[in-house]
Design brief:
Elements: E1 9-15, E2 19-26, E3 32-39, E4 48-50, E5 53-59, H1 61-81, E6 89-96, E7 101-104, E8 125-126, H2 134-146, H3 164-174, H4 176-181, E9 184-187, H5 188-197, H6 209-215, H7 228-234, H8 236-242, E10 255-258, H9 261-267, E11 274-276, E12 279-280, H10 281-288, E13 295-300, E14 304-310, E15 322-325, E16 333-339, H11 343-352, H12 360-372, E17 382-384, E18 402-404, H13 412-436, E19 443-447, H14 449-453, H15 455-465, E20 469-471, H16 477-489, H17 496-503, H18 515-536, H19 545-559
Parallel strand pairs: 1-6, 6-12, 13-19, 19-20
Antiparallel strand pairs: 1-2, 2-3, 4-5, 5-8, 7-9, 10-11, 13-14, 14-16, 15-16, 17-18
Helix pairs in contact: 2-3, 7-8, 10-16, 11-12, 12-13, 13-15, 15-18, 16-17, 18-19
């Protein structure tokens, strides 16, 4: 198919947990003209692990650069075959996992590229899902409260082991030789634009307000990163490190620079293409799914990440893990929340507790078919979705799953449905917290694997949330969001909302809530909330005696319908 010479295109680079991908997008319509994917070769599906510590998850920064060359070369080749001229590609946007910080030298080169550190796991990129720094996260939370610093108000009241400062502090503890050798640390979402533009100098590289605000306690309210006194109270070397980080971070409608000649020649693209400041993959997914005031974008996969935006001033919201101005759409407040496990819960049950199926996918299919035949409340079961702790709104990784209401007649399909319902109840808890603090949620747009492929789950979500559930038009919403930023810095659109209007959208089918189901789920949610508060908050003192009785009453009533 040949393309008009008047059409412009942008590239979205999406760095996920196991691979990097690139898409070439028509800036006028959002049509995805070409796609390239490159799987990380290092470790297990791209992840470096340690059998002695299940919390450890690192990546080889070399994979990021090799992946960049591979996917951009393929995109350039596809563009040429389609008759797209080099000058028609006007911008590049980048999204990555976060917090994935990399220890680097004075030129911004990863320490793992040095011979002495090539096999040192602490010198690699600290992948977002690395939880080795849970003790450090707790100490950061405790110290911020003790010193009465405002930092925690923007991240839900507790700092996470997944985030920037926890990981660096843990590196100092377990690998001081790496910490001492690191001139600075660079988030992956800053590193890739730096490579593209030929500027990896830690003191001058463009830093993302999305990564800085959501993961490193950055806010212009208190002058950027946490102050030296606070950091020094955690470890004196952190205060010194602050000087080698950054004072200012930028939204992704700003250019990080232009594609440097070296990279351009190697991949077959013209030098000088504007490259946007990087962003986090989930936030780019929100942009690519058309997030706007009143819309919640729910990226539903193994876990979930919820993205919303709000215009004007906004109160701090307890239990919401990120409140950052400009992090999603410039000139709006970006909000991030989510659940630590969604699809992972379904996979756990299908893989470990339903061994009769030949494969997990067959088990999912059979369970979904049988669970879909059940009515809400018919099983008498109720679950808490904390099998991997609670990310929001309790922000407590030391919580665990719960299932009540079982009898000698309980079936695997009933349990499976209860687990799906529990994740929907967790999603509703987040929405209610947002609305409690005057962030209205009128519609929910799903994206990610479950939203794309599982109508059973999506209908339960629509019924539990009692809101229409839409699905992002693009199956690659994060890459599309990055391409939208590329289109803006490339001048194809004046701003992000205008670019979204042209390039993003939702599928025509909408999951509408069933009023009768929604009514029963409202009853079940009231019981879920009792369990949620009883096991998740220290001051709950209401008797739980009635919960099982009410579940039985709902079950008996439902079975007569």
């Amino acid at each position: 198919m040949q393309h008009s010479s008047n059409t412009t295109y942008s590239i979205g680079l999406d760095y996920g947990t196991n691979s990097t991908r690139a898409i070439l997008v028509n800036t006028a319509t959002g049509e995805e003209v070409a796609t390239a994917v490159w799987d990380y070769p290092s470790g297990e599906a791209g992840i470096l692990t340690d059998p002695r510590d299940p919390n450890l998850a690192r990546q080889n920064p070399r994979d990021y650069i090799d992946g960049l060359y591979a996917v951009l070369t393929e995109i350039a080749t596809s563009a040429k075959k389609a008759g797209i001229k080099p000058e028609q590609i006007v911008g590049i946007g980048v999204d990555t996992t976060a917090s994935t910080p990399i220890p680097v030298d004075e030129q911004g080169i990863p320490l793992s590229f040095q011979e002495r550190f090539k096999d040192n796991l602490a010198a690699q990129a600290w992948l977002w899902k690395d939880h080795t720094a849970h003790e450090e996260a707790a100490s950061i939370t405790e110290r911020a409260k003790k010193m009465k610093r405002p930092f925690l108000a923007k991240c839900g009241g507790a700092y996470s082991s997944e985030w920037f400062w926890s990981k660096i502090l843990h590196c100092k503890k377990v690998a001081p030789e790496v910490f001492d050798a690191a001139f600075s640390w660079i988030e992956l979402c800053d590193f890739i634009p730096g490579i593209l533009t030929g500027n990896t100098n830690p003191l001058h590289i463009a830093r993302s307000v999305c990564g800085a605000g959501h993961k490193a306690m950055y806010s212009e309210e208190w002058g950027g990163l946490p102050d030296e006194e606070f950091l020094g109270s955690l470890d004196s070397s952190l205060a010194a490190l602050r000087k080698r980080l950054y004072e200012k971070a930028y939204p992704s409608d700003k250019p990080a620079g232009t594609l440097c000649a070296e990279i351009a020649k190697r991949v077959g693209l013209p030098a000088g293409i504007p490259v946007a400041v990087g962003t986090i993959d989930a936030h780019a997914g929100g942009v690519g799914s058309g997030v706007k005031p009143g819309t919640l974008v729910k990226i539903i996969g193994t876990s979930s990440c919820d993205i919303a935006v709000s215009q004007g001033s906004l109160r701090d919201i307890p239990g919401i893990s990120g409140i950052v101005f400009g992090s999603v759409i410039p000139d709006m407040v970006g909000l991030e929340a989510g659940q630590a496990a969604v699809g992972d819960i379904f996979n756990w049950f299908a893989s470990n507790l339903c061994p009769e199926a030949a494969t997990p996918s067959e088990s999912h299919k059979k369970l979904s078919e049988n669970a879909e035949k059940l009515r809400p409340g018919e099983s008498g079961l109720l679950a808490l979705d904390w099998n991997h702790g609670n990310r929001n709104v309790l922000a407590d990784p030391l919580l665990s799953g719960l299932l009540i209401g079982m009898t000698l007649h309980t079936t695997s399909a009933e349990v499976y449905r209860a687990l799906v319902e529990s994740t929907a109840f967790g999603a509703l808890t987040i929405i209610k917290r947002l609305e409690e603090y005057e962030v209205p949620i009128e519609e929910v747009v799903g994206c990610g694997g479950i939203a794309e492929k599982n109508p059973f789950v999506m209908q339960i979500y629509a019924d539990v949330l009692n809101r229409p559930m839409k699905v992002s038009r693009s199956a690659q919403s994060s890459a599309l969001g990055a391409a939208i930023f590329g289109a803006v810095v490339g001048g194809a659109h004046r701003n992000v909302p205008e670019a979204q209007q042209a390039m993003a959208g939702v599928k025509p089918f909408v999951y509408e809530p069933n009023p009768e189901n929604a009514k029963i789920y409202a009853e079940l949610y009231a019981l879920y909330k009792k369990l949620h508060d009883a096991f998740g908050t220290p001051d709950y003192n209401e008797c739980l005696y009635s919960v099982m009785k009410e579940l039985i009453a709902i079950r008996n009533r439902t079975r007569k319908i």
